[in-house]
Every structure is written in C-alpha cells, then in structure tokens.
Description:
alpha+beta; two-stranded antiparallel sheet; 5 helices; about 30% strand
Amino acid sequence: xLYVFGFERxxxxxxxxxxxxxxxxxxxxxxxxxxxxxxxxxxxGQLKGSIYSARPIHVDQPIWRVDLLxxxxxxxxxxxxxxxxxxFTGWDPGPRVFSKELxxxxxxxxxxxxxxLDGVLQEAGIDGDDVIAADASRVRACVPEILDSVNRxxxxxRAGGLDRPSGEEAAxxxxxxxx
Length: 179
C-alpha cells in the first residue's frame, strides 16, 4: 500500500515494507517488516491532453528515509530495527542511523522530525528556497494526517494484513514495498 502527500516540490511517501537484506550487518539478520516513510522531491508534469486530462506526477529522488521496522522473529511492537537515513547519494541511502528515541517512541520521534523538516532538509544537503520553506511549513501542518497513515499501516502490518506469505523469511533477499 502506498500513501503520498504532495506539496509544491516536496512529497512524503509512506508504504508498508517486508525486507530481507542479502548482506546484513551483525545483529540485523533475518526478515524485517514495518513501515517506510520517505521525503522525496516531486515534479508536476505538463498536461498531455485537454485541460481535463490527468496530470503526470513524478515522485522523484529521495531526500530522507525513516524505517519503522522490527524483526519478524522478534516481539511485535519492539521496533528493534527502527532507524533512519539522514542522507542520500542519488538514489542510494547512507548508512542506517539508530536512535533510542526512535525505537521507544517512533510516532513521536517522527512527528518531531517532520515538524522540523527545514532542519532535516538542511542535514540532507538540500538548499532551501522560498518554495521548499513553504513546503516544509505545509508538511508541518499535515503531520497529524501523515502520522495517521503511518499508524494505520503499522496496525495492518501487525495484524498480518500486509505481511508476505509464510516461508519467504527464509529467502536470502526480499524487498516487497512501493518504496
């Protein structure tokens, strides 16, 4: 499932994810599941037909990522694999950054970061302009809606509604997600 919140040039995308890293770091072995949120650049395309035609929308390069993950073998609600990627190089994320606050209160931590999106963008190396600053303000105003979508997906993941078929967690490499 995919949710996208779009503003002028910044978008927030949220999706469920089931992941098995083919080359995990020590302590990160095994299947992971949860919710991924990415802040991305957006581009509004030109109409391709009449004034009534659908508008192309390009959800472009990622800026920042949060993975509210837990190991499938672990206790539900542990967020034992929750982390974020404060920097991307092109389409590739930097290393996982773990935070005690993120694991202990993921929605509160996420609300705080989204509410201070200007700082997140600055840490990611995004040069702000008036449009980006306005988008950060719009994201801040939508934090309750964004968190609601994240929470709904977390509930579905835990209930098994978005889980992958059993047996897949033994595979060497899996990535099932929009993001």
